[in-house]
């Protein structure tokens, strides 16, 4: 198994789905002026209006554009998990995380609001809880590939010591997650922590389902990314090759044998603007 | 560009002209400065009179309010001056002795219009209402003179002496003063005035309306016209809204009528209630302060109100709203909040009743016109916007599916021979519709800022559809049909009298040339259609309606060119196409248009027309005409049926035999002389220039060769010979002879 992930998202259908949903849904919502569907405030939406559907909705789309950007980038970084687990297991874990984090957050929110002093009114927006739960899996199962030091010699005048920071290849996702948590304030930090715990519990089996539950197979196309462990890696690689080879022969055996390849539509469009 | 001293000087001069525009007040000369100062002084003076006024005092020196109706009745030629000898300035009662309204109108307002009791009325009534207006009388009443004060007059000569006495030469245009129709339609736009003040000075606490649960200041624009849109009147006015009783008083303002100060007196018309007077006076006072009224009078305002004063009448409008009895004030508050800032509160917005003016009088004191308004209603502005948004979203979906269908269609016809069968004008017609739509949507973005996002998306989708996808397709259609057009075109250019027969030139313009040519044409077309659409919107309905009908009809005839094209190309009927030469490669003689494209496009393009003409509450307020829609639907259906019949029975079934021109046949025998020219080989075969193998040919005068199948080779018009399979696969890329580049007739 090589350290390099395949380029593009063609091999990561679930990651692609998540990224596209994260970007496109808020855009549609703002065109249709229904962004408020994805807001949860304990008061008045839940206690007064009893709009419990918001609990189901709030993780689907982020309201703030910054959150949209951050969550999209984090989904992209989490694609290694899809490579590791395979699309179907990854999808199952996402669904499980979504379910458990939502339940935990709602429960904790209700419990916390029993205290008479502080109110935890606003829940986070966007798939922050799910992402944080997956972040545990990422940390647990993705090997660190390299690390590097950043040294500052005497940054604060002559008498200061040398500063040294060690980063590894995961510093990008770490930073993104931190910004995302900070961006949503206290509620973001609290929710993030709870969700991360959920991730740990799902992984350890305390919250059941990670080994048993699988999404129906038509959601994640079978055979597309079966997961590459050391043992099966070569097999699935070979399968991929033969598959693509078969496809190639199908396209090659088109009805008209010709030496000049047919220009695809995209090329034709580009040609139009080549003056 | 070389930059020398002159250039820099030139740039500075340009910049000077750009930035030396009039300052904040728009004053450009000493004369105008004096004008503006006088106006402000006059307003200040009037305001100080107003500030000291009580309900028992008459108006004194306030522009437009110097005379009462009875003054005019007594002495018809009276001048509006102050003071008038013998006029009682120390008493007020709401009758024609003190007001500018005649007694009959005052009674009518008291008894018919403002007859309602206190009730629950919506505090925020921003909306656009539609209804009917009826003329009560346009000659029974005396006209109360309202002269325009002198200082409003523009200068008469270049010396611009401000103190020159103004001589009225009586040429003042009478404008559109009289209302001559008996019945017409009215549109009343109501906007809250306090939102317009949001930009006032931020440091000062700009708290404007301290009685916002009781009184509201509004901007009311009244537009009324006869049913044919031939005589249009439009009044901009300020209004006071009594929330408790649902009463609205709107008074227009111009150079001859400073109506702001009239509100307290004219509002306390029904019960001579001191409370009403004081509250309205406070409202006006607060409005005056919050809007910084005197300082915000600019030169622009002055000139505009002078112009309005000259060509329009002044109007007072008394309206009575219907109560929303089903709601409590708390519910109304929730509804209001939800409308302005939607969060999903518990407000049942779908069942919200419309804003309805149950009765109203519009009276013009200086023109003596009395109009009655009845049952004018419309949804709250936010609800209307919501409806428009939903319609636009549906439009976006339609556009997206049109793009998808077009892409499928383009994939279907991916060879020049296939594209050749498509009609250029069919897609050109669709393209012009989509291009114009893009422009309309783009213009609407500035008109309706609330809908900016969906409108921009619509406009963008139209633009993408028209100028990228459809243009791309048009270019390839044009390119594939270029050799058909070239013949006549060049003959025309060379002024050939036909003495020398010229073949089509061998040079076919390449796609880049064609595309730049087409884009130029497209942009010109968009520009022209924009001008046309903008001007059509202002036409009177008598001309507009037939124009619209013809235009929609023509624009919905997009399959007609394709039917004609099919007939020219002469597609084979379906059952003959079903059995091509068995062993040969698939021949390119399918129907050029996909059925999914034909039907989908027809539906997509018909739905908006159907919506505009059949749904009575459509967002464009377009009139309803079901018969026309049915005709259009039948017409489209008829076109589709003809297309289908061409598919089934062959494209030329409706043409008589002798009108059908003979197409070029690639499969024919040759004479032995031709064979010699090609350099015959002993077995009567010729080299195919594509595959370099032998092509056995059918030679007419040598019976030995008659067992050769004519379908196995093709002879081009330039008499080059190839294998059928070789040339056909070549022709899916280019319709030029591979040997001599002469254009080839498509299959």
From TrEMBL, chain A:
Q: Note the topology in the membrane.
A: Multi-pass membrane protein
Keyword Membrane carried by entry: yes
Q: Which InterPro entries match?
A: Rhomboid-like_sf (IPR035952)
Is the keyword Membrane in the record? yes
Kindly list the places in or outside the cell where this protein is found, as annotated in its UniProt entry.
Answer: Membrane
The protein's name is KLTH0E15752p
Q: Which residues form the signal peptide?
A: none
Bias regions of kind Polar residues — which residues? 226-235
**UniProt superkingdom:** Eukaryota
Region Disordered: start-end pairs: 226-265
Listed GO cellular component terms? membrane
TM helices/strands, residue ranges: 12-32, 52-78, 90-112, 171-197
> What keywords were assigned to this record?
Membrane, Transmembrane, Transmembrane helix
From TrEMBL, chain B:
Q: Where is the signal peptide?
A: 1-26
Q: In which pathway does it act?
A: Protein modification; protein ubiquitination
Task: List the transmembrane segments.
Answer: 392-410, 422-445, 451-469, 522-539, 593-614, 626-644
Tell me what topology the record assigns in the membrane.
Multi-pass membrane protein
Q: Which InterPro entries match?
A: DUF2921 (IPR021319), HRD1_E3_ubiq-ligases (IPR050731), Znf_RING (IPR001841), Znf_RING-CH (IPR011016), Znf_RING/FYVE/PHD (IPR013083), Znf_RING_H2 (IPR024766)
Q: What's in the GO CC field?
A: Dsc E3 ubiquitin ligase complex; endomembrane system
Which keywords does UniProt give here? Membrane, Metal-binding, Signal, Transferase, Transmembrane, Transmembrane helix, Ubl conjugation pathway, Zinc, Zinc-finger
What domain of life does the native source organism fall in?
Eukaryota
Q: Note the Gene3D superfamilies from the entry.
A: Zinc/RING finger domain, C3HC4 (zinc finger)
Q: Which GO terms describe its molecular function?
A: ubiquitin protein ligase activity; zinc ion binding
- Catalytic activity, reaction form: S-ubiquitinyl-[E2 ubiquitin-conjugating enzyme]-L-cysteine + [acceptor protein]-L-lysine = [E2 ubiquitin-conjugating enzyme]-L-cysteine + N(6)-ubiquitinyl-[acceptor protein]-L-lysine
Protein name from the UniProt record:
RING-type E3 ubiquitin transferase
Q: Whose protein is this, by species?
A: Lachancea thermotolerans (strain ATCC 56472 / CBS 6340 / NRRL Y-8284) (Yeast)
């Amino acid at each position: 198994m090589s350290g390099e992930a395949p380029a593009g998202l063609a091999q990561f259908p679930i990651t692609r789905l998540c990224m596209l949903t994260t970007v496109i849904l808020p855009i549609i919502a703002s065109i249709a002026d229904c962004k408020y569907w994805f807001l949860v405030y304990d008061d008045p939406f839940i206690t007064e209006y009893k709009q419990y559907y918001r609990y189901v909705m709030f993780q689907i789309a982020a309201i703030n554009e910054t959150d949209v950007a951050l969550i999209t980038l984090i989904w992209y970084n989490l694609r290694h998990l899809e490579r590791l687990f395979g699309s179907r297991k990854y999808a199952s874990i996402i669904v499980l995380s979504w379910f458990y984090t939502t339940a935990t957050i709602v429960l904790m929110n209700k419990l916390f609001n029993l205290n008479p002093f502080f109110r935890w009114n606003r829940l986070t927006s966007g798939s922050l809880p799910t992402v944080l739960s997956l972040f545990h899996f990422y940390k647990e199962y993705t090997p660190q590939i390299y690390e590097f030091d950043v040294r500052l010699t005497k940054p604060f005048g002559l008498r200061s010591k040398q500063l040294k920071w060690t980063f590894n290849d995961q510093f990008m996702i770490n930073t993104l997650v931190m910004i995302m948590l900070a961006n949503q304030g206290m509620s973001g930090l609290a929710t993030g922590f709870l969700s991360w715990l959920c991730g740990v519990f799902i992984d350890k089996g305390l919250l059941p389902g990670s080994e048993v539950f699988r999404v129906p197979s038509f959601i994640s196309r079978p055979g597309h990314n079966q997961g590459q462990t050391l043992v099966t890696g070569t097999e699935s690689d070979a399968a991929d090759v033969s598959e693509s080879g078969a496809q190639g022969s199908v396209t090659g055996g088109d009805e008209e044998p010709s030496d000049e390849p047919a220009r695809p539509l995209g090329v034709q469009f580009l040609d139009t603007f080549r003056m | 560009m070389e930059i020398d001293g002159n250039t820099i000087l030139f740039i500075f001069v340009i910049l000077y002209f750009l930035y030396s525009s009039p300052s904040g007040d728009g004053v450009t000369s000493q004369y105008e400065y004096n004008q503006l100062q006088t106006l402000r002084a006059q307003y200040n003076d009037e305001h100080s009179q107003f500030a000291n006024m009580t309900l028992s005092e008459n108006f004194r020196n306030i522009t437009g309010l110097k005379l009462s109706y009875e003054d005019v009745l007594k002495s018809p030629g009276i001048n509006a001056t102050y003071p008038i000898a013998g006029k009682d300035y120390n008493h007020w009662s709401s009758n024609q002795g003190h007001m500018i309204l005649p007694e009959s109108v005052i009674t009518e307002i008291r008894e018919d219009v403002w007859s309602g009791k206190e009730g629950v009325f919506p505090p925020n009534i921003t909306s656009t209402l539609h209804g009917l207006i009826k003329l009560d009388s346009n000659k029974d009443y005396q006209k109360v003179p309202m002269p325009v004060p002198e200082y409003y007059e523009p200068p008469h000569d270049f010396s611009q002496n401000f103190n020159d006495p103004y001589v009225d030469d009586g040429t003042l245009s009478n404008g559109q003063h009289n209302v001559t129709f008996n019945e017409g339609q009215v549109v009343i736009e109501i906007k809250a005035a306090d939102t317009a003040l949001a930009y006032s000075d931020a440091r000062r606490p700009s708290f404007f309306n301290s009685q916002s649960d009781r009184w509201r200041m509004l901007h009311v624009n009244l537009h009324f016209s006869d049913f044919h849109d031939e005589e249009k009147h439009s009044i901009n006015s300020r209004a006071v809204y009594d929330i408790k009783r649902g009463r609205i008083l709107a008074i227009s303002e111009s150079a001859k009528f400073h109506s702001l100060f009239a509100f307290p007196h004219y509002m306390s018309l029904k019960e001579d209630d001191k409370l009403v007077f004081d509250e309205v006076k406070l409202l006006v006072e607060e409005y005056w302060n919050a809007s910084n009224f005197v300082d915000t009078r600019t030169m622009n305002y002055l000139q505009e109100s002078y112009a309005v004063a000259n060509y329009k009448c002044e109007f007072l409008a008394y309206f009575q709203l219907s109560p929303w009895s089903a709601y409590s004030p708390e519910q109304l508050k929730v509804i209001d909040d939800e409308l302005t800032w939607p969060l999903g509160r518990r407000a049942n917005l779908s069942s919200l009743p419309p804003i309805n003016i149950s009765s109203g009088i519009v009276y013009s004191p200086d023109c003596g016109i009395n109009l009655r308004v009845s049952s004018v209603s419309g949804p709250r502005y936010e609800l209307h916007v919501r409806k428009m948004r939903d319609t636009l979203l549906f439009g976006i979906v339609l556009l997206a599916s049109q793009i998808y269908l077009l892409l499928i269609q383009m994939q279907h016809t991916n060879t020049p021979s296939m594209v050749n069968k498509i009609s250029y004008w069919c897609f050109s017609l669709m393209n012009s519709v989509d291009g114009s739509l893009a422009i309309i949507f783009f213009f609407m973005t500035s008109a309706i800022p609330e809908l900016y996002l969906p409108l921009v998306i619509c406009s963008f989708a139209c633009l993408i559809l028209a100028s990228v996808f459809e243009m791309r397709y048009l270019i390839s259609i044009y390119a594939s049909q270029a050799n058909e057009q070239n013949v006549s075109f060049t003959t025309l250019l060379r002024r050939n009298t036909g003495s020398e027969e010229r073949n089509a030139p061998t040079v076919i313009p390449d796609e880049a040339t064609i595309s730049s040519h087409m884009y130029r044409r497209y942009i010109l077309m968009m520009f022209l259609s924009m001008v046309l659409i903008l001007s059509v919107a202002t036409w009177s309905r008598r001309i507009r309606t037939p124009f619209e009908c013809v235009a929609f009809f023509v624009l919905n005839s997009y399959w007609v060119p394709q039917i004609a094209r099919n007939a020219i190309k002469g597609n084979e009927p379906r059952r003959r196409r079903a059995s091509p030469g068995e062993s040969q490669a698939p021949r390119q003689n399918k129907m050029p248009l996909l059925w999914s494209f034909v039907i989908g496009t027809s539906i997509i393009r018909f739905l908006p027309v159907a919506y505009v003409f059949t749904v009575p509450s459509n967002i464009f307020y377009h009139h309803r005409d079901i018969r026309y829609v049915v005709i259009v639907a039948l017409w489209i259906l008829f076109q589709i049926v003809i297309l289908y019949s061409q598919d089934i029975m062959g494209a030329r079934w409706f043409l008589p035999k002798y009108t059908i021109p003979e197409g070029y046949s690639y499969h024919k025998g040759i004479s032995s002389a031709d064979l010699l020219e090609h350099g015959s080989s002993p077995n009567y075969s010729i080299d195919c220039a594509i595959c370099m193998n032998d092509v056995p040919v059918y030679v007419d005068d040598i019976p030995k060769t008659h067992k050769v199948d004519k379908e196995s080779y093709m002879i081009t018009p330039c008499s080059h010979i190839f294998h059928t399979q070789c040339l056909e696969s070549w022709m899916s890329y280019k319709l030029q002879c591979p040997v001599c580049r002469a254009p080839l007739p498509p299959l």
